[in-house]
Amino acid sequence: MIYPLIFLVLGLVGLLLGSRLAVGGFENVARHFGISHLLIGLTVVAIGTSLPEISVSVMGAIDILAGAEMSAVSGIVIGNKIGSYINQLTVIMGIVGLVGLMSITKRELKREGTMLILSIILFSLVSLDLTITPLEGVVVTVAYLLYFIYLVKQEAPSKSTSKVEEGRPKMHLFKDFLIILIGMGVLLYAAEVVVENSVQLAELWHIPPSVTGLLIVGLGTGLPELTIDITALRRGAMGIAVGDMIGSNICDILFSLGTGAMISGFTVEPILLWFDTPFMFLIAFLVLGLFMRNMRLERKEALVLVFVYVSYVVLKLAFFMGG
Question: Per-residue pLDDT tens for 88-124?
Fold first, then answer.
């Protein structure tokens, strides 16, 4: 029992170190190119912290092609995407909101909020027949890539801005990119260590598998976002935190899912459509509503999100235990 506990602690330390390295590198690159923290958060950081979800989709699809049972693997893949979406918009955003004030402009809220809702609608549409085909995987992937291109065009620095920035001393871009790669590598490996050893501890302590999957593994895939966003807030890079919080969800439900679906296709369990997907809509509208009040998330509102997550867990467990 002692070894999983030791590795769990070491993994948590690795998460903190990796997040500090990655955020520092992202900040330097953004400053060098005159790119806003928000764009970095919505694109580079969002995709980087979604690598665990992307790998789950791709490896799951490869397993299906290799002969693994489609329904079992699909349940893990689709459940991971929905669970990550719900976790990040409730308990993770709530914890980050308790650490520091999160704010957003009306323009950003309208643009990213619209895409957040559209991503769930698109996911619902391709899942209606309980099957996501490779062609539908291409559709959701292309939808994300179009959003990505739109973001870059919207947030990229203008030529006039670039000229003003010419006077800045050159930064060590190779070093910064290397720091980002090292930071993300440490972060993702540490997250895997934390999840793996948490599962081992749960088995040793005889915690039910459903609770382990929902509370430990589900939250574990959100650890990169949690650690990076808290570190970003503490460093004053609020745009990275807010951008990653929203951007990683859009990436998970479209790009992460689509990359795997393009390879083999997936099946969708009915309960995910009639229970979890509606919950995703409710949470998305709640988060957008809280931000709409005064364009920021206050601590008492962050507590509301944590409470919503606890309520979701209780309902989920009550349903399955009752069934």
Answer: 899 999 999 998 888 888 988 999 999 999 999 999 9
Distance CA 34, CA 218 (A): 35
| Secondary structure of the chain as H, E, C letters | CHHHHHHHHHHHHHHHHHHHHHHHHHHHHHHHHCCCHHHHHHHHHHHHHCHHHHHHHHHHHHHHHCCCCHHHHHHHHHHHHHHHHHHHHHHHHHHHHHHCCEECCHHHHHHHHHHHHHHHHHHHHHHCCCEECHHHHHHHHHHHHHHHHHHHHHHCCCHHHHHHHCCCCCCCHHHHHHHHHHHHHHHHHHHHHHHHHHHHHHHHCCCCHHHHHHHHHHHHCCHHHHHHHHHHHHCCCHHHHHHHHHHHHHHHHHHHHHHHHHHHCEECCHHHHHHHHHHHHHHHHHHHHHHHHHCEECHHHHHHHHHHHHHHHHHHHHHHHHC
Q: Yes or no: say if 187 and 19 are a contact pair by the CB < 8 Å rule.
A: yes
302 CB-near residues (< 8 Å, 6+ apart): 93, 94, 95, 96, 97, 98
d(CA 309, CA 295): 22
- Residue ranges and CATH numbers for the domains of the chain are 36-161+225-322 (1.20.1420.30)
CA pair distance 225, 16, nearest whole angstrom? 11
**Encoded amino acid at 144, one letter:** Y
The model's pLDDT over 251-282, given as tens digits with 9 standing for 90+, comes to 989 999 999 999 999 999 888 888 889 999 99
Contact in structure between 96 and 82 (CB atoms under 8 Å): no
